[in-house]
Design a protein that fits this description.
This protein has about 400 residues and is α/β, with parallel strands linked by helices. Helix content is about 30%, strand content about 30%. It is elongated, with a radius of gyration of 24 Å. Belongs to the methyltransferase superfamily. Arsenite methyltransferase family.
């Protein structure tokens, strides 16, 4: 397994650092040509002990892009000798906290020694795997990592765990190794081996897809160094959708079916949500909607669904690949709490991550709450379909709304 190889390798690096050696986790050729591993990527290491600097085999400075604020809690995945955790502790201040997680006992010993030498008390180093973080859900404001996720042989689990431990609105900011563009697999493998990527790197497209599947939105991947043959260092940023206290927005699951359809029916019963009068079964619901771009708002204690949003394709023609129609519904007992706004905001961000350039919807003119919500989030009325259909025996108009992305297709 890659995990065992990684632990053995980094335990050896930690032992070397403990004896005073400088650790650089790439071969001499890579270090000479690229100069991007170790502490070269950091803006400011003032005040850190030499032990932390000696064991800094990263590929960037995730702390610089994590947007840390005083009083926040941050988790470093694969924290190694502790350099990122110590820098984070300095940024969050005495009222904040910085956790470091590492699978190597030797690295943890080194990190704790470095923290003691630095006189930093608002840190805690945990033993465990990044695929199963030993912390409760919704407990940190930021997750950082420095050239570690590429080492995992279960990257979807790592990203799912990062999403789980983050509070709503929390940030994901890591340095990592990725692959960009079509490359020869043999040359790619050689480049990955050269930079120490023993479990293989994700392509940019794979990274985006896995982050989206975990529930992250606002995904940005920025290249920082080129190691040749399509292998690059990059900063990967995303965030967990924001919503009010006690709630969370996550991807819709099949287990949510009953609650989703119940909320759907409650909306239809108002006679203001749709021309439909009876919610379909789950098979019908899923058949008519895209497999991605489906989210629910849930109570974090009970996992009770309090709202949902989903999208349908408007056409099978390729020219309309970036145009979707959406629906958003909130439990009748949970309205006027900002849930619909949070769901729609998350949906807009996720749609842009997916390359959607236009979101459209049809709303009854009498549904003023929905109209107000959509217009507040950038939708505009583009027309009225007059007396387009009969609903409970009465002819009704439908307002056509759309939101054109300012990011995609501009």
């Amino acid at each position: 397994m890659a995990h065992d190889e990684v632990v053995k390798r980094y335990s050896g690096l930690a032992c070397a650092a403990l004896t005073g050696k400088v650790v650089v986790d790439c071969d001499a050729e890579e270090e000479f040509h690229q100069g991007c591993f170790g502490t070269a990527g950091y803006d400011d290491t003032t005040g850190l002990p030499e032990g932390a600097l000696r064991a800094g085999p990263g590929c960037g400075d995730p702390v610089a892009v994590a947007g840390l604020h005083a009083g926040e809690t941050v988790l470093g995945l694969g924290s190694g000798g502790g350099i990122d955790v110590l820098l984070s502790a300095r940024r969050v201040g005495p009222h904040g906290r910085a956790y470091g997680l590492d699978a190597s006992p030797d690295m943890l010993e080194l990190a704790r020694e470095n923290a003691a030498r630095a006189g930093v008390s608002n840190v805690e180093f945990l033993h465990g795997r990044i695929e199963a973080v030993p912390l409760p859900g919704h407990c940190v404001d930021a997750v950082i990592s420095n050239c570690v996720i590429n080492l995992s042989d279960d990257k979807p689990a790592v990203l799912a765990e990062a999403f789980r431990v983050l509070r709503p609105g929390g940030r994901f900011g890591v340095s990592d190794v990725v692959t960009d563009g079509p490359v020869d697999p043999v040359r790619r493998a050689a480049a990955e081996q050269r930079v120490g990527c023993v479990a293989g790197s994700l392509t940019v497209e794979e990274y985006r897809a896995l982050l989206g599947q975990a529930g992250f939105v606002g995904i940005v991947i920025t290249f920082t160094a080129d190691h040749g043959d399509g292998v690059r260092s990059a900063i990967v940023q995303a965030h967990k959708p924001a919503i009010g206290p006690g709630l969370e927005i996550r991807p819709m699951r099949e287990a949510d079916a009953g609650q989703v359809l119940s909320i759907y029916q409650a909306g239809l019963d108002t006679a203001q949500a749709s021309f439909e009068t009876v919610a379909p079964n789950w098979e019908g619901f899923t058949a008519g909607r895209l497999p991605h771009l489906r989210y629910v708002a849930v109570d974090t204690e009970t996992d009770e669904v309090v709202g949902w949003v989903a999208a349908s394709a408007v056409s099978a023609r390729p020219v309309y690949a970036g145009v979707v129609e959406h629906s958003v519904y909130v439990h009748p007992g949970c309205q006027a709490h900002g849930i619909g706004r949070a769901l729609l905001t998350a949906f807009i961000a996720a749609s842009e991550d997916a390359g959607i350039w236009t979101i459209q919807s049809g709303i009854f003119p009498e549904n003023t709450a929905s109209l107000t919500l959509h217009q507040a989030l950038g939708f505009r009325v583009v027309g009225t379909r007059e007396r387009v259909g009969r609903h409970y025996g009465a002819w009704r108009d439908v307002l056509l709304l759309e939101r054109r992305s300012t990011v995609i297709g501009t």
